[in-house]
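User: Before I run my own analysis I want an independent prediction to cross-check against. Here's the chain; please return only the structure tokens and, at the end, one sentence I can use as a sanity check.
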Amino acid sequence: MSNLYDKWFLQDLPLQNRVVMAPLSRARADDPGRTPNKLMELYYQQRSSAGLIITEATHVSNNSVSRPFSPAIDDDRKIPAWAPIPKAVQARGGRIFLQLYHVGRKAAVQQMPNNISPLAPSSIPAVGKVTTTQGKKPFGAPREMSREDIDAVICEFRSAAVRAQKAGFDGVEIHAGNGYLIDQFIRNSSNRRMDGYGGTIARRLRLLIEIVDTILCIVPGIQVGVRITPRDMSDGCADTDPLRVFVEISNALASRNIAYLHVSEGVGADNQYSLTPVIREKFTGALIACGGFTKASAEQWIQSGQADLIAFGTHFIANPDLPRRLALGEPLTAAKREYYRKGGALGYTDYAFL
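Assistant: Structure tokens:
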């Protein structure tokens, strides 16, 4: 019988267990510059007992700007700053993927370079506010991307993957959820284009597929995962037929040699509206399930074959040795929400091990 704590192979990459650390935005990078540092290295090193770590979302472009102290890998000068992080994790038996994203229309307009407008599939602003150095500000009006803009973004993702490989990461995860740029192309509430990147579902998926294909072709040897959030409607990014959309995504990615599909729904194992079981039927590769899992539900999903790996987010914040605590049935420490993105070591690297 499969076990959450068994060793497992992700393609040819050995994992010490099936517990995944989900991407968590912690806002500890050096700013300005969006450069990783020694404190981030310690944070990931502490959690290296996870079978796989997926880093916080990392910007691929200087046109992708969000909350202060968010990291980026948008130029070659950041490679030496990132390199100690995978080295520290791998030295302790862990594996680590760098999550890549572009925020698109959710950019902080006040921080855009050269005062340009945020980029989006269509000129439709996101709903809500963005965190800036001046506090919360409304999302600005985006500019509809030209074909040249789209080609540039694909190139930025490819270049970021090359840098991740040079820095020593085991792979990259393409963030195609949570209302960010790729998700904005996927959903028909935010994509009203009628060219080759809009209209039909297949055309709305085209940006994601082209990013995945170009990385697989141009960056030999790197593993590529994809994260989707089927039931998330962040900042007004929704779709009228999510079931059809995510079935098509699953079919399209199943025909490609990606490392895994990471499905985050925030519903754990018991929600009747979960799309993860449907996606599991369509996607034949490794599947990571994420969102609201307990020790019992995670073990049940692995044993029943509903998922290959289970990702935990909040629990990893306050329990750096989470796989051991789960295996032993030890109580879990509660995370201090007030320190999630406050900066510094407090509530970041000061949680106790067993």
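Sanity check: The two ends are 28 Å apart (CA to CA).
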